[in-house]
Amino acid sequence: MSVANMDIRPVTDLDVRGLRLLVRADLNVPMQDGRVTDATRLERFAAGMRPLLAAGARLVILTHMGRPEGDMDPTYSVDKLRPLLSKAMGARVLFSDISCGQSAVTLSESLADGEALLCENVRYNPGEEANDPALAAQFALLGDVYVNDAFSCAHRAHASTEAVARMMPACAGPLLMEEIEALTTALETPTRPCVAIVGGAKVSSKIAVLRNLVQRMDTIIIGGGMANTFLFADGCNVGRSLHEADCLEVVAEIRATAKDAGCRLMLPHDVIVAREFAAGAAWEALPAHACPEDAMILDAGERSTRAF
Question: Which domains does the chain have, with CATH numbers?
Fold first, then answer.
């Protein structure tokens, strides 16, 4: 199915007055010393929510922060986001110290039109990343309609993104719709020449994306840890770099598909390496094939940057 043919209902089609909208957001903003260092993601989310609040919606917001692995690590509490979120949305924002359970349900039912409830980090629940249907059923008690507004998390089959959407009326939030429309334009009617930049840690998590893109793009620039796996497949020494040694067949398949489609894959020619992944670590620029055994590739080099 093409992006353009997806049957996705936007939340803006609903009369939201008095409805509890269970909104899955991605407010995983960068933090340092307990303070938000870049609020762009939060502000963009708030901009889409303000019209819904003005129309009388009652928002119950689910989000994650970091990777607490099911532990109640206060470092990853989302309560610290509440003042910024309240200011950005121009609305009162309550807080639930749990993301599911009776006290959270009670708070959601206490909301007035135009108010919001921010629930604690969904990843404090061990069942979140396991897509536990029992946990999703608890989430479903928090709202009347589910709204996915977290495009960056929508590909993950987690309890707050996939299972819960099967248990209640579901629709797409403003940010999700914006991204879908942008993808539709980029993938269905691209302006050529068109280039895709694909990064991230793993090839294995983006196999379907790469298979799709190589048949639509003229060029794909591969960066991040993913580039290391491609370099490793070429016989390059990658030292202690993040890479997937068991993905060589996948890399070969993607390259073959790209060749058949006339899509050029670009990898770094030179790289930045260091002995440790830490601020202030000593680094050096080397050819992509010359990473020492005790070092790791952390970025593309200046020559590659210019080429890209």
Answer: 3-178 (3.40.50.1260), 190-307 (3.40.50.1260)
